[in-house]
Amino acid sequence: MSDSSRKTRRAATVSLAVLAGVNLLNYLDRYVVSAVLPALKRGPLRLSDLQLGTLMSGFLIVYMLAAPLFGRLGDRGSRTRPIAIGVFLWSLATGLSGLARNYLQLLGARAAVGIGEAAYGTIAPALLADHFPLRSRGRAFALFNMAIPVGAALGYIVGGLVEAHYGWRAAFFVAGLPGLALAAWVWRLPDPPRGAQETDSLARARPAAPAGSWQVYAKLLRQPAYVLTVLGYAAYTFALGGMAFWMPTFLEQSRGVPLVAATAGFGEIVVVTGFLGTFAGGWLGDYCLKFSPQAYLWLSGWITLLAVPATYLALASGIPWVFYGALTVAELLLFMSSGPINAVIVNLVTPVERACAVALSVFAIHALGDVISPSIIGGIADASSLATAVLIVPVAVALCALLWLFAARADRLAQRETNALSMT
Q1: Of all helices (H) and strands (E), which one includes residue 388?
Q2: Are the CB atoms for 285 and 343 separated by under 8 Å?
Q3: Are 354 and 129 in contact (CB under 8 A)?
Q4: Burial (CB count <10 Å: 0-12, 13-18, 19+), residue 421
């Protein structure tokens, strides 16, 4: 291996480690709020349940609305600088959350976190794609996304421990401080040329719209494989978001599990299955890529289809060993798609459209996914029961699987048409 190849590989490894670390802090910051909700309700702020709920909703709404703006920015100029600024802003906003004296100040700080995370969440995958070739991109994105369950778990753990000893304000200070240091590190990361790791015609294709323009979003909506992939991802996020929000309550109300045990047990399952499933899915996706260019989509579709009966058993069975075992299998299978699907979103478009492609995906999966699923499940529960309401989750999982399988077929047909045109 030449010196230049070693330097390129070293830069890719360092970038992946730093961006994965930032992703871990990203989810730690999101879930530290959940850990301090009782303190916010009982403490001097005396927040109502509705106000507590809007802290997450406000963040998600700002996050998904800001994503398209940063998608344009990420496809036009430097990528490391806006990511670094975004990390700095959200870390600062997290620290400011600990200084809030009333509900509106706290809501404003949490909304500002959404702006910073939108910069990172839309541009980082595009940067990462240009550090790794197609054959190893699934594993790179799997490692990047393995930080999600670990970060979420640390949010509960760190937030709970710090709040218990030093109060809820200190929990926000502790969550925000590391990001300020990582922002400086991100600023110094290398920013490779767009398409640096591409070897096929996709890298040489000229986009139908100028890079970073609003027209790119219109172009993306005319690509069937991309649209089907994102719609499937939205159904996936609907299912996982609904389960994450309601599962502890469901286990307590419908299965008689004490709330503390339900929360701890579900959290342990998510961390273990998230870590193992995400890693296994990334490795398996890269291996299957040897046999089909659409391997990531075929793998994700079939594995998610296998998760449907396990998800149903986890929510329908009243036998503890059955629903806990089925829940473990379902979460493991669902997390296996995390790395491959995120790789698909950047692979389906040209290198100069990747940040916009991720941005549009971020907007869609939240608007159609975890922003609405807790409310829909809650509304059905009010009309019937929570045990009945959660059965919408396996329906969403089945829809997700079918959409990804249709996306694989659509991409295969599109590639055949492209090859046919190139031969004429």
Answers
A1: helix 386-389
A2: yes
A3: yes
A4: exposed
Cβ count within 10 A of residue 422: 8
Query: Residues near 163 by Cβ (< 8 Å), separated by ≥ 6?
Result: 35, 36, 39, 170, 171
Is residue 241 in a domain?
yes
- My answer on whether 80 and 216 are in the same domain is no
Same domain (yes/no): 20, 90: yes
User: How many domains are there within the chain?
Assistant: 2
The pTM (predicted TM-score) of the whole model is: 0.83
Do residues 76 and 174 share a domain?
yes
User: In which domain, by residue range, is 424 found?
Assistant: 207-424
Residue-wise pLDDT tens digits, 33-84? 877 877 887 878 888 877 877 787 788 889 888 998 888 888 888 889 999 9
Whether residues 256 and 353 share a domain: the answer is yes
Residues 6+ apart with CB under 8 A from 241: 369, 370, 371, 373, 374
347/250 same-domain check: yes
CATH of the domain at 261: 1.20.1250.20
Joined tokens for residue 332: 């493991």
Tell me which amino acid residue 91 is: S
CA distances from 381 to 18, 37, 58, 199, 392 (A): 42, 23, 23, 51, 11
Task: Tell me whether residue 363 is exposed, middle or buried, using C-beta atoms within 10 angstroms of its C-beta: 0 to 12, 13 to 18, 19 or more.
Answer: buried
